[in-house]
Every structure is written in structure tokens, then in C-alpha cells.
Write a structure and sequence with these properties.
2 copies of one chain form a homodimer.
Chain A (H helix, E strand, L loop, with lengths): L2 H33 L6 H19 L2 H10 L2 H4 L4 H19 L2 H24 L2 H22 L5 H9 L5 H24 L15 H15 L8 E3 L5 E5 L2 E6 L6 H19 L16 H15 L3 H14 L8 H7 L16 H18 L7 H13 L25 H20 L3 H6 L4 H10 L9 H9 L6 H14 L3
Parallel strand pairs in A: 1-3
Antiparallel strand pairs in A: 2-3
Helix pairs in contact in A: 1-2, 1-3, 1-5, 3-5, 6-7, 7-8, 9-15, 9-21, 10-11, 11-12, 12-17, 15-16, 15-17, 17-21
């Protein structure tokens, strides 16, 4: 490589590193806001966050960035680059193109609109007042449609949105996998509804000491191999994980006095996200590739740990006695009954409270509606009717009001269309990865029953975590499992699990 | 004002606001590092901190800043500015001139040198190895002497350093006040040493529950009027206060199991710093004037609360029964004995462990040595000998090794010459302010005995806190007390206090 090109590459790496540093500062400021920042400091804090985000954005779209990318994306140079550099260059080019294409005044309008809209949504949800939110949502959809034109329409307009959260994902692919999934899950759900063998969950309705909940969460995280020298556990209203850098990946959980399962499963969930970020390879440190490769793959790791390991019989065969030690009120409850209770399936209205099976139906509904909004001319005013019809069709229930229906999620108020699909993709990726993992590690169940979770963490590190964003989601899933995303693994997993639990 | 000038003023305010936002982010990153950041994230965090500091520095010395300052400092414009704008302009001009005058390669060399030097100092202190630290210190003094030339020599070379921490302070002034102070404190100290009425402190050597220490600290902070909606209390190895913005002023303390007084007095001390920052007027929000006006005035507030209120008899007349409730092991100890114990005076080697009286002698020693280094040709190699001679002269004791002597403080390893004086200035300012406060509030002692500390906080807010950096230290002390810094108030205060305690 010529010396001048080498210098451009060096400068590009430094610029990316600088952007990454801004992301770390922004991440910490957000974490702090959600874990205990004094409330009177919030307005100034928000201003500081806005300033840092603007600076990071300016660097990503700067003349310097353009000049480095122009040099480094020329085919002759690109093919000489090492893998990590090439990936980072491609990633930055994609970001650059996307940001450059929208006029700044449109970006500004969007920022102002979504800020107002989130407040309007909170009120509207609280009062079940769709009409009060509808004007904001109409404007957001309109502006987002304009953005799609600027960004460039892929196969369909909605494809452009999907690609933002899951690179290379298309409507064609999602349509196919969701159709297949729906075809298998709706009948399964109906059989479960009809089953007489419903788990008893009454014993979960007790009071559980918060200090003991925290102790048990810490214990489980330690068992998973969460590195407390590279992270910490705090409390927040909504649990989350945030990777500031691979040596500082923090998680939060929420201890509910009347529900011991909430903290346990959110610790497993956020712990799964955290294992991913903690185990990214050192060679990616300081690059923009030192993060999860997509929302879907990230979610696959939280759900693999939360559901496929954490709600399994082998897991509780090993850990139930520890839980009982922390909570003597469960001492009379049999393992089998506990296991069945934490796996109860029930049609419900609220996505975030849904079980492992119906969760996917909640997502499919949202995906179909978003696609209608962006590809098929559905109007915002008709959203509640469409929403309720789909809940009736897929889950057999109808929300009594819009607050518990179409207004329940924050996503649309912030313009995050295309995001929901990632949640179910996560479930499908997880089941597909689990299938390979079981094949390659025949002692998988035995390891869990022995409380030996580290080999599982290591297998996942070797196959997934260490690559960070240096492989695309589809490269990754093919490399790990030998095939593209295949919804049958999730359907197989759920059918097997619930056939046994509900004695179908 | 012309429209163009008005625009320049607007842009200047925005630039200052942006610098302030960087300071907030930097402050939070530091706070986090000292209160629980995972250790594996520290190297990357340090890089992020370095990046943000560099960006803030660049803005302060940018071409934009120069252009705004050129417009706004022209006499015709300056006299039209409102007080806050004018102060901020003057402040930024001073920073700009100081930063611009030193060539960047010298700044870089200084940064690298002090980073290495702090590590070398830690080892040297640990091993009492002055020879191991001496080469670093020699280089730092040499570079600092060069900086003084760039910054411009005031009356003497050391004046330039003093001014950095306490604007407008001069060697001439400090020489005068320290000479006066020494003349009164050294004999007082000798009389105390000779007194047969030594307080008994044996009962302080017990174990004290940490949770109770935290509860008592929170209680005292609440009594002082510390606003927990605009701050929080955490634990760290070295207690500190940090004002991110007036709505977010955090403090830390350190709970020692075998010493209940450490946490109590550090909470009062940091609480005093915090009251200052929490009560800066809203009109200064988002400006670079929204902070304490100098190290000395800041320290006056921590020491006024810690010593003059917190170690007073009225204070414990009110709060001793609360302390006893938290710590039943003190239930047999009389108030009078407790009060005398926390006010024991003793010649000792370590500054940070010194009592209210001898502390000032530790500072005078350091001030005299720094002045010799920068104004009188003292060589670094001769520091230990000079140090030990002064400890012998003023405190009657000699360090058994350099780790407990000349190597005890971190300041010089970071190049912070000129800083030490602020500590004693704080004591003197505090006593002088207290004198006025007592005069203007005759019920001062009665308020304290009643546990009614809020009027005191309000008086200090009205006279000092609300002005932030919009008044210079000397403007402030003259406005509050009617005269320039006068060391007699501190000497009077200490003589009266110890005459009674030691029955001199």
C-alpha cells in the first residue's frame, strides 16, 4: 500500500476511534440518567447528551470522513485492506451515505417532531386517546416516507426500514419466515388454549425479599460467566444492558416485591446481551465493529439465555434448590410445578408481558401493520381497527381500549418502524443456534444440570461473540448453523416444549 | 449594540455552553471512575476522557473563540455587555491567552511527563525513594519554569502560579498573611503542647457499623440543606464533591469501620463544597461562571461547615444524641468529652490527617518551599533536607523517612505548584466570613443548637453561593466582610477555641 494511502487509513482508524469514544461517553450519560442521576440535573444533562450526539454525527458525516472513504473504498485499495479495516470502511460508508442523503433541515424537523411525539404518546397511552396521538404519528409516517425516498427504496419501501436494524433483511425473507412461523404457532397456541393441563401459578403471587432477589441475580450472572470486573449490576425501572467498551458492559434489572421471576429472567436476558459485548475480540477494540452485529443477533443471545437455557428443566434441576434457599416460601413447591408455572402460555394483550410462544404473534401483528403502513397505503387513522382485528385473529382477544392496544409501545412515537421484527428474529436465530449447539455439544443438557454453564458461554464466544460487527447477521448464522434463517427450529423447539408441559 | 456584534455575542454564549457541556461529561466520567466503574474498562475510559478534554481545550483556543473575543473585548463593546457576559468574556480571554502562549509541543511534553511522573511518585512514596522521583520532579519544575516565561512573569515567578488557583493572589499578600498567621499559631501550638489538659480520645477507637455511618451522614447532609434531588451521596476511597451542573452536585465519603469521625467530617466537608455549587444562581446556568470562584473560596465553604460549624460545641449540643442513637457504644461518653476529643491538637507528620490548627503550619511549610523552588533557586535535590528542617522548626518533629515527609502529597507529581496555599486561604476566608455571619446573625449559635441550619445556608447563598464565578475572590470577600483577606480572624478563632478546650 502506498504511504499516502497508509496515512489515510491511519487517520480513518483514529477518526473511527474518536467516534467510538463519543459513543462511550453518550452511553455512560444515558446509563447514569436511568440508574440514579438526580432529577434536577436532567434538563442540563439532556442538553449535554444532545451536544455529544451532534458532535459524533458531525464526525461521521465530515469532510475528513468523506476524504478517507473516497480513498479507501476504491476497489484497488479495498482489496488490500485487512478484514477488520475493510468491514469498518464499508460500515462507515453505509452510515455516511445514509446520513448525507437527507437534507439537514429534514433531520432537524424529525428530531423536533419525535421529541414532541414521545411526550404526546405518553399522555395518549395514559388516556387511551388515539385521536390525541394520531396527528403526530401521521406526520412521523409522512416524514419517514420522505426519508425512505432519500435513503433509496429497496425492493419495497418497507425494506429500507428493515435494513436499518437488521442489515440485508428483506420483506421477502421476513414474509416467508413469519408465514411459516404463524402457520405453526397459531395452531399450537389453540391446542394449548384447549388443554385441560394448565400450570398452577398461584405460588408465584407472594412477596419476595428484594435483597435476596439481588443476591440470587448476582449468583446466576456469576454462573453464566458474566465478568464483574468488566461490568456491574444496578437497578432501573426498565432493565437494560449497555456496552460502553468490552471492559465495561453494564446491566440493570428491576426487583419487584410481588414477582420473583421478573428480576431472575431479566438478569438472564440482560446477562445474555452482556456476554455478547464482553466477549468481543480484542482486535476489534476501539473500532466501530466492537458491538453486536444487529438487533436480531443481539436479541438471540438475550433470549437464548433467558428462555432456552433459563426456562429449561435442566436449568432449574440444578438451580431450583438455590432459589428455594433464597426464598423459603417456595420450599413446599415442587420443581416440576415451578418449571411449569414459569412456562405458562396465555393469550394476552401486552407484548412485553407475553410468554415465549405468543410473543412472536405480538411481533407478527406489528410487522404486518408496519408493512401495510409503508407499502400498502394503510392510513394512520385506521390503525386501531386494524390492530384490534389482528389481535382477534391471531390471539383471540380484543383490547378493551387503545392504551392496552395500539398505543402500548413506545417505538412508533420515536419513529422506530422496522425494529419490532428483530425481537422475533432473535427468537428464531436463538432456536437455530441452539439446534447446532446441541448437535456439537452432546453434553449440553448435562452441563446445565451440573451447573457448568461456562462451556456454553465459550462455544457462543467462539462462534458469535468474538466477531462483534465484523460479520453480517446472515454471514454469521450461515457460518454457525450451515444455513440461512429458518423458522422451523423455533417452531420445533416450541412444539416440543409445550407438548410436554401441556401434555398435548 | 450592532446586530453583528449581537450575533457574535450569541455565538460566544453558545460556544461557552458547549465547553460547559464537555466539562459535564468529563465530570461524570471521572465521578464514575472513582465510584465503581469496572476495572477492565479503565484503559478505554482514560482514552475517552483524554479525547473529550482535548476537544474542550480546542474549543477554548479555537479560531472562533478568538474571533468572538476580539469583537467582544473591544472597550466600546465590553462596556455595553451585561455583567455576566462581561465576566464570561474576561474569563475566556484569560484562558485563551494562557493557553495560546505555550507552544503545543510543550503542552504535549508536559502531559506525557506528568502522566509518567504520577506513577513514579506512587512507587517512590511507597518505597520512600526520593532519588527515584527526583529526576521527574526536576523536569517538571524546569518545564513549569518555561511555562511561567510563556505565561508572563508577574511580580515574581511564583506569583504566576498562585494566580492560577486564586486569581489576583500575590506572593506579597500571601507572605504577609502567612507571616502574621505563623507568628500567632506557632506560639499557640507550643502552649497547647505544654498543656496538661489533653483530651481523651480513647473511646473513638472502636468499631462503628458502616450502614449506621451512612445513615448518619445522610441525616447530617439533610440538616445542612443539601438537596438530594440535585445530588447524591456515594462511597469512594478519597471523598470528593463534583458539580456537573447546579442540578447535579454529587458528593462521596468513605466509611472507615474503626473511625466514625472520618465519614461524619468528610460528609460535612464535601457537603459544604456541594452547597456552594447547588446554590449558584439560575442566571449563570450554562455559562462557564456556574462554578466556585476559586479554590480558596471553595475550600472556605467546606471548612466552614466541617470545622467551624461541625466541630463546634453548639453543633454537638444538638446532634450528639443522634450520634449516640446511631452508635450506642458512645452512650457512656459525655458530650464535653466527645467535643474535646474531636478537637484534639497534635503535631503530626501527615497534612491530610492534621487538626484544624496545625493544618495551617503544614501549608505554610509547603508554600515557603514552593516559593524557594521558583523564586529563590532551591534545587530539587535539596528538597528533603529543607522539608525536614521546616517540620522541625514549625512542628517540632522530623519525618523518619521521605515517604512520610516530602513525598507524601500527590500535587507536585502532577505539576500543581501554587495549589497548597488555597487550603489555608480557605481557613482564613472561612474565619473571616464566620466573623461577619455572627455579627449579622446574632442568633447563630442558637440556630445551631436548635438544629436550624437552613438560615445559615441561606445567608451563605445570599452572600456567596449564588454569585458562582461572577465575582472574583477578593471582590467577594470585601463585599461580604468589608475588608480584604485578614488572617487575624482565623488566629482569633483558633486562640479562643483552644484556650477554652485546653484551658490555656
Amino acid at each position: 500500500m502506498e504511504q499516502q494511502t497508509q496515512q489515510q487509513l491511519e487517520s480513518f482508524r483514529n477518526l473511527a476511534r474518536k467516534i467510538k469514544s463519543y459513543h462511550e461517553a453518550i452511553g455512560l450519560l444515558h446509563w447514569d440518567l436511568r440508574t440514579g442521576a438526580p432529577k434536577k440535573g436532567v434538563p442540563t444533562r439532556s442538553e449535554t447528551l444532545g451536544m455529544l450526539s451532534t458532535e459524533a454525527f458531525k464526525l461521521q458525516t465530515s469532510a475528513d470522513m468523506k476524504s478517507y472513504l473516497d480513498t479507501l473504498t476504491s476497489p484497488a485499495v479495498l482489496e488490500q485492506l485487512e478484514d477488520i479495516d475493510r468491514r469498518q470502511v464499508e460500515d462507515c460508508q453505509k452510515e455516511y451515505d445514509r446520513s448525507q442523503s437527507v437534507p439537514p433541515e429534514k433531520v432537524q424537523a424529525y428530531t423536533v417532531l419525535t421529541a414532541k411525539s414521545e411526550t404526546a404518546w405518553e399522555d395518549a397511552k395514559h388516556n387511551s386517546d388515539f385521536a390525541g396521538f394520531s396527528p403526530y404519528l401521521t406526520d412521523i409516517v409522512k416524514l419517514k416516507q420522505e426519508f425512505i425516498d432519500y435513503w433509496g427504496v429497496k425492493d419495497t419501501r418497507y425494506d429500507t426500514l428493515l435494513d436499518m436494524y437488521e442489515p440485508e433483511l428483506t420483506v421477502e425473507k421476513v414474509d416467508a419466515v413469519f408465514a411459516r412461523l404463524k402457520a405453526r404457532l397459531v395452531p399450537l397456541q389453540e391446542k394449548i388454549n384447549a388443554s385441560a393441563n394448565k400450570p398452577n401459578t398461584e405460588f408465584l403471587n407472594q412477596l419476595f425479599d428484594k435483597d435476596q432477589q439481588e443476591k440470587f441475580s448476582l449468583f446466576i450472572l456469576e454462573q453464566m460467566g458474566y465478568d464483574f470486573e468488566a461490568g456491574r449490576l444496578d437497578e432501573s425501572v426498565h432493565p437494560f444492558a449497555t456496552g460502553l467498551n468490552p471492559g465495561d458492559v453494564r446491566i440493570t434489572t428491576n426487583y419487584l416485591q410481588d414477582d420473583v421471576t421478573s428480576a431472575v429472567f431479566s438478569s438472564l436476558h440482560e446477562g445474555g446481551h452482556a456476554l455478547y459485548e464482553q466477549n468481543i475480540d480484542d482486535s476489534l477494540a476501539g473500532t466501530l465493529l466492537a458491538e453486536g452485529t444487529s438487533m436480531g443477533i443481539h436479541e438471540s443471545q438475550s433470549r437464548l439465555w433467558e428462555n432456552m437455557i433459563g426456562r429449561s428443566l435442566p436449568f432449574w434441576t440444578r438451580y431450583y434448590k438455590d432459589l428455594q434457599q433464597h426464598f423459603p416460601q417456595l420450599s413446599e413447591v415442587e420443581l416440576e410445578d415451578f418449571y411449569r408455572a414459569i412456562n405458562r402460555v396465555e393469550s394476552s394483550l401486552i407484548r412485553i408481558e407475553a410468554d415465549e410462544l405468543t410473543y412472536n404473534l405480538h411481533i407478527i401483528i406489528r410487522y404486518e401493520i408496519e408493512k401495510m403502513l409503508f407499502n400498502e397505503g394503510l392510513e394512520v387513522k385506521d390503525l386501531p381497527e386494524t390492530w384490534n382485528a389482528k389481535y382477534k385473529e391471531y390471539l383471540g382477544i380484543v383490547p378493551p381500549n387503545d392504551g392496552m392496544g395500539v398505543l402500548q409501545d413506545v417505538h412508533w412515537s420515536g419513529g422506530d418502524f422496522g425494529y419490532f421484527a428483530s425481537y422475533s428474529l432473535g427468537n428464531m436465530y436463538a432456536a437455530q443456534i441452539l439446534h447446532t449447539l446441541r448437535k456439537e455439544m452432546p453434553e449440553f443438557d448435562a452441563h446445565i444440570t451440573d451447573g457448568n454453564l461456562i462451556p456454553i458461554k465459550e462455544w457462543l464466544t467462539d462462534k458469535i461473540y468474538r466477531y462483534g460487527k465484523s460479520r453480517t447477521p446472515s454471514e454469521l448464522i450461515v457460518a454457525v448453523t450451515g444455513e440461512e434463517l429458518n423458522p422451523d427450529y423455533l417452531a420445533d423447539y416450541l412444539e416440543a416444549k409445550y407438548t410436554e408441559i401441556y401434555k398435548l
